[in-house]
Structures are given as C-alpha cells and as structure tokens.
Amino acid sequence: MFLPKYPDSPTPPTHITSTAADSAPARRPVPQISVSTGAVAAVLLGGVVLTALLAAVAVSAVSVAVAAVVLRSLLRDHHRR
Question: Sorting pLDDT into bands at 50, 70 and 90, what band is 10?
C-alpha cells in the first residue's frame, strides 16, 4: 500500500539541461560610497583634538596627584612639630 512504485525499465534522459552552470550567478549591485576630502580631514582633525584633550587630562591628573602627595607630606610634617 505505501510501497513506492518504480518503473519497469528506467530510461536515462536524452539530453542534460544545465541552467545554473551556463549563466553567471546574479550579483546584487553594491552601493557606491564616495568619501570627500573634507570628511577625511574632519575625522582626522577630530581625532587629533580628542587625543590632545586626553593627553591634557592625563597630565592634569598626574600633576594633581603629585600636588596631593606633596601637600600630604607637608601637613604630616606640620602636625608632628
């Protein structure tokens, strides 16, 4: 009842059709991205400014830390006298 029925004498196809190999694969068009010189200059300038600000914050933090250590040392000597 549920058994498949096979043909008595299978015949191979007379010709083979291959559509996938004949045609090139379809490619989607890639959007064109144009970067202007002004945009590159703005990004570079922004990077330089942010780097300079980060360096300024780091130098300020180090100087505040050194000042705190010096003041702590001076106050400790003042309290001992």
Answer: low
Q: How far apart are CA 29 and CA 31, in angstroms?
A: 6
DSSP class of 19: H
State the Cα torsion 39-40-42-45 to the nearest 10°.
180
| CA–CA gap between residue 52 and residue 56 (Å, rounded) | 6
Residue listed under structure tokens 């570079």? 44
* Tokens describing residue 54: 């980060």
**pTM of the predicted protein model:** 0.49
Q: So what's the pLDDT on residue 51?
A: 98
